[in-house]
Amino acid sequence: MTRICNFSAGPSALPEDVLHEIKDELLDYAHTGMSIMEVSHRSSIYRDVIDETEASLRRLIGIPSSYRVLFLQGGASLQFAAIPLNLMRGKRAAYVLSGLFSDKAQREASRYGTVEIVGSSEDTAFDRIPDLGQIDQRISADGGFDYLYICQNNTVYGTMFDVLPTCRNTPLVADVSSCFLSAPHEIERYGLIFAGAQKNAGPAGTTIVIVREDLIETGPACADICPSYMDYRLQAHKGSMFNTPNTFGIYACGKVFSWIERTGGLEAMERRNRAKADLLYRALDESALFHGTADPGSRSITNVTFRTESSELDEAFIEFARLRGIEGLKGHRAIGGLRASLYNAIDLASVNTLVACLHEFEASKRSSMRS
Ligand code: PMP
Predict the structure, then answer these.
(1) Do residues 57 and 184 touch, judged by C-beta distance below 8 A?
(2) Pocket probe mutation, ligand 1, options 178, 179, 200, 230, max atoms within 8 Å of Cβ
(3) Ligand 1 atom closest to Cα of 152?
(4) Which of 158, 162, 325, 357 would be a feasible disulfide site paired with 305, CB 3.0-4.6 Å?
(5) The whole model's pTM is what?
(6) Angle, to 10 degrees, between the axis of helix 75-87 and the axis of helix 100-109?
(7) What is the reported pLDDT for 366?
(8) pLDDT band at residue 371, thresholds of 50, 70 and 90?
(9) What CA dihedral angle connects 189, 209, 13 and 345, to 10 degrees?
(10) Which ligand 1 atom minimizes the distance to the CA of 204?
(11) Phi-psi region of 316 (alpha: psi -120 to 50; beta: other; left: phi over 0)
């Protein structure tokens, strides 16, 4: 069996060790004679799984006891509605428009209250993170926002906030779906972070929400219309078991969290991720054929977006790479081009393979132009 180099943006590569562990336990979890998928979520066996998964995540990130951890369903997209339904008490929130998913989030939020865009990079086709100084100024001059919302890493455009906005008393809410656990999170800087699991945390179907308890203790802001499932206080009270949770997904996330702990934690993960990203960006910067599309000051360490001079050549490169065991390089359908996602399970050797493939393709184009 050969596994390919999978640079997909999500669902994406999982650590091989984790896949082996899951395989080994699949038919008989912890001598129960059952797969974990067949175990009742109300059993003590499963209670131990979800408790240990949460404990492992708390150790990894260093989550203070004043924050609640929820394991929900509905993907990151359901949180676009759950956030305003729970947190829009004054019916007014600030959003930074930095790409496709912050746009989806602000559209959803505007169904429940007033959304003000306090920073945008739409005018440069989302190639960068909007000016932080301007955002900070807007937030400090106006104390009336329920929260400031950012998409911390823009999966589609390959940009990320390397520095967070300073938002004083306004809670910062961040979609960290595509940078979750790729580096340490300074959790106390946020009111809430959330992530769909399918990039760095586990299989699709689980969404992790980490929220400061005081923001939810009086129940949802829009209590009259907030579905019970999306009520953070209720979910926290029920230990993410208001209904049947995604038992397998949470179990698999737990395996990934333990793997990160075993392999050095989030600082080590960040060092590895920066080394991988530097290697690929350097290759793109030195290339005459490929070029990175994100402004160098805003480059993501997890999603590297690039292109050639034409969509035909991009397609040709995708095929060329596929023949060499490299998959997942197609850019998001909204913008085309090329993208390599360098999540935690991708090792430096895979990035070296990709860089060699870029060089080989470029050399083949040069020689075909000469002949
Ligand atoms: N936010 C970001 C940053 C994403 O990358 C994605 C999915 N790629 C989403 C939200 C939407 O996630 P889901 O499909 O889990 O709803």
Answers:
(1) no
(2) 178
(3) 3
(4) 158
(5) 0.98
(6) 40
(7) 83
(8) confident
(9) 40
(10) 15
(11) alpha
